[in-house]
Amino acid sequence: MAESAQKRTALSLVESFNRMDVPAIVGARDPSCLRHFYPTAMAQQPQDTNTYRKSLTSLHAIFQNFSLTVDELIEDTANHRICMWLSARADTAAGEYVNEYVWLLDFDESGEKILRTKEFSDSVMARDFFPKLKAAMDKQRTSKAGGEVHTNGR
Questions:
Q1: For residue 94, what pLDDT is reported?
Q2: Closest CA to 44 of 117, 98, 137
Q3: Which is more confidently placed, 147 or 9?
Q4: Eight-class DSSP state of 31
């Protein structure tokens, strides 16, 4: 059986993340696509395409050697949907980033554009890692500024 267009799009999306090719990642989405985050306890608002592009651009500078591996892919061609379980890793100022995601992708009828994403991530990892990353980045900014902390004349 031939590989479906939506499966090709989903796997191409993963490859685009592995290259951190922001235009290709965003280009896989329909302009009206919203990115939803789960679990809801993370309290993150859905991202439209413009917000998503800005988020990816900022992450590109933070995550070095980012890679995604598809651990499992389940396809529902009748409903234009793919679910992928992914493993992620990257190098950051705070050390190695390792996470797991589940992406539920809804496609248009052609299978070439993603209409909606639901992304589940390891919320315990995010809760523990991102404060460490912020502290490491703040430390880097301070050291690049010559170690001085500027307080607007105070």
A1: 83
A2: 117
A3: 9
A4: E
| CA pair distance 150, 28, nearest whole angstrom | 42
Tokens encoding 43: 């309290």
pTM of the model: 0.83
Query: pLDDT (tens digit, 9 = 90+) per residue, 67-94?
Result: 999 999 999 999 999 999 999 999 988 8
Distance CA 58, CA 150 (A): 24
For residues 14 and 16, give the distance between their C-alpha atoms in angstroms, rounded to a whole number.
5
Contact between residue 142 and residue 149 where contact means Cβ atoms under 8 Å apart: yes
Distance CA 118, CA 27 (A): 17
Task: Spell out the residues 6+ positions from residue 68 whose beta carbon is closer than 8 angstroms to its own.
Answer: 14, 17, 18, 86, 87, 88, 101
pLDDT digit string, tens, across residues 21-31: 999 999 999 99
> Tokens 């299978």 belong to which residue?
111
- 48-87 as b/e: b if 16+ CB within 10 A: ebeebbeebeeeeebbeebebeeeeeebeeeebbbbbebe
Contact 100, 126 (CB under 8 A): no
